[in-house]
Design a protein that fits this description.
Chain lengths: 307, 307
Amino acid sequence: MTLLILMPGKENSELLKALKTLNPNLDIRIWPEVGDVNDISFAIVWNHPKGELKNYPNLKVIASFGAGVDHIFKDPDLPKNIAITKLVDDSLSGQMCEYVAGVILNQRLRLTEYREYQAASVWAPKAFKSGNNVSLLGLGHIGKEVAEYLVQLNFKVSGWSQSKKDIKNVTTFYGQSALKQAVHDADYIVCLLPLTPKTENILNKSLFSMAKKGAYLINAGRGGQLNEDDLLDALSEEKLSGACLDVFKVEPLPKEHPFWCHPKIYITPHSASMTNIKKAASQFYDNYLNMKNGETLFHQIDPDREY
Amino acid sequence: MTLLILMPGKENSELLKALKTLNPNLDIRIWPEVGDVNDISFAIVWNHPKGELKNYPNLKVIASFGAGVDHIFKDPDLPKNIAITKLVDDSLSGQMCEYVAGVILNQRLRLTEYREYQAASVWAPKAFKSGNNVSLLGLGHIGKEVAEYLVQLNFKVSGWSQSKKDIKNVTTFYGQSALKQAVHDADYIVCLLPLTPKTENILNKSLFSMAKKGAYLINAGRGGQLNEDDLLDALSEEKLSGACLDVFKVEPLPKEHPFWCHPKIYITPHSASMTNIKKAASQFYDNYLNMKNGETLFHQIDPDREY
C-alpha cells in the first residue's frame, strides 16, 4: 500500500510534506526513486512519461494532480481497468469564477486600453463596452459554478456541454448540433471544457464562423482545444475582437510563439486556477484510505468519456 | 417654464435631442444663448461658471447632470432656497458595481502584472493575491449596491458612512470615530463618498495610517477627497501597495501630473460610471413636470448635508 508521486519536472516537496503531515507513517516514493514496483498501489500523476504506468503490477488508483485528466489519457500504454480520479477543489472553481469574471470585466471596463493611454498620459474616457452575453463551453463542476457566479453579476449566461444540464437562470444546450445556438449570440465565449478526443481543436474556424462578429474568446480549458492558426485568422479578419488565453498546446508558451506579441491576444500563464497543495494532499489521502478500505473513491472519472 | 442647459464645455446635442424626443414642444435654451433670463425655471447644470445661477430670478430647480452635486456647491454665490436634484440612474450604480469589482479582480488576478510579463515574453505563473476584505467608504444609493454586488462575489465587505446604515451581510460603521474600525482590516479601501466639506481630503495620511500595510486604494468618489501628497508618501513608504484612481482634483488630469507615470498608480479617466443620456433626459423631464405641477421632486438633495 505504497503511494507514488509521479510528476516529472514538478517541485514535490510541498506535497510530500503535506501528505506526511496527514500521516507520518505513509510510505511515499518519489519517481524516479521508486524502489520495488510491486509496492505501488496509488500514484499521484502529472504529465507522466508515456508507458511508465504499465510498470506497476499492483497499481489500483491513478490520481490526477489537477482537475483535468487529459494528460493521463495521452499515454497509449495506459493500463486498463485501473481507477482514475481527478482533483475537485472548491478553491479551483472559486479561482476560475474570479478569473472569468475578472477577464470579462477587464474588457468591459477597457482597463488594458486605459493602461496603454496612461503610458502616453492620454485622458480618453469611453463608455463601457456593451454586450453582456456570455456563453460557457463546459458545464462540469467548475463550469456550473462559473455560470452561477456570472448570473449573480447580472450577466446573461448560456452554456453548452456534451450531456444535458440544468442550471437555474442559465440557458443550456448540449450535443454537437447545438453548438451554434450556444455561441451565436455571445459577446464572450469562454472555454472550460475538459480535453478529450471530442473537444480537441473545438475552438476552430467553424466555431468562430458561428459566433457574433466581434465576440471575445477566453480559453481557460486546455491548449489542445484551440486551433491556433484559426484563431490568428479570426482575429485578423476581425471575426473575433480579441482573446485571452490561459492555456496553450505547449506550456510554458515558447518564447518565439506569435501569441506573445499579438496586440489582440492577452496571455496569462496557466494561472486561472492553481492547485492548493494542502487541500490536494488531503483529497489524495482520503482516496488512498478509501482504496485501502475497499470503499468508493471520490471523483472517479468515467474512462469512456475521459473526464 | 423654460429649461436651461448650463454645461460649459460639454457636448449638449445628444441631451437636447433626447429631451425633444420626450416633448417636442419643450422650450429649451442652451447657455450662453439664454434669451430672457426671466423665462428660466429649470436648469440642468454641470460645472457652471460661479455666480451664473444667481442671474435667473425665476429659477426653481437646479438639476445636476450627475450623481454628485459638489460642483454646484463650489459656487459661493449659489442662490438660496432653490431645490437641487441629483441624477439617480441604475445604470450609474450598475457601472460602478462592475468598475469596483473589475478593478479588484484585476489586482487579485495580477492581470496588469501579466500584461507586463507578456510584453517581455515571460511566463511566470503566481497564485492569486490573497486577501478579500473590502471596505467601502460611502453607503449611499451607489455604495449600497456596490456592497451587495461584492457580497455576491464572495468578498467580505464592510462599509462606512456618515449616518447609520444597515445592509445585509455587510459590517457597517458610521461617524468619524469609527473610521479606523472600518478600514483597519481592509485589503481594498474603496471611496464612493460624495464630496462635502466633511469628506474633503478624507483620504489622507491619517486614514492611510489606520489601514493594514499593503492595502490597495480605489478612489471612484471625487478627486477632492484625496490628499495627493499623502498618497505619494504612503506608496513610497509601502504603507499602501497601490491605487487605482478614477477621479482627480483637476480633470482631465494635467499632462505633467506625477500620477501619470507612477508605477503603483492605475489611472482611469473618470470612466467608472458615465451618464446614460436618454435615461438622464427622462429623469430631468419627469422632474420638470413635477416642478410645473407643484409635485414632489425626485432625488432632491439636502442642502445642509450637500448630498
